[in-house]
Amino acid sequence: MAIKYSDLELAINTLVTEFHKAADDAPTMNTSQFQTFVSKQMPLIGKTVESEEGLGQVLQQMGIESGQNISFQDFWTLINTQAVQVFNNTHKEKDIKCNCLLQ
């Protein structure tokens, strides 16, 4: 019998799969690959990384130094930040805030 995955598990699988596809199946991607990946898969933040200044801000948010490649763990840091922002901007009960932080 085939395992039935939840929507959340399928979403996580999509994040991992798309990251590695964009990185040409490597463990990391360069900033050019990252810009293309984010522009295609995350259009809201994709607009930010179109400029060098915006890209620099996003890379800094992830803790990436100049010339350093981006790992999935670095990308997950960005996902965490985006998830908190989206939740805080869209949650119906405005008195509830997400304070999720990666350790």
Automatic annotation (TrEMBL):
Organism: Characodon lateralis
Coiled coil segments of this chain: none
Classification lineage: Eukaryota, Metazoa, Chordata, Craniata, Vertebrata
Record-given protein name: S100/CaBP-9k-type calcium binding subdomain domain-containing protein
SUPFAM superfamilies membership: EF-hand
Highest taxon in the source lineage: Eukaryota
Domain (S100/CaBP-9k-type calcium binding subdomain): residue spans on this chain: 8-47
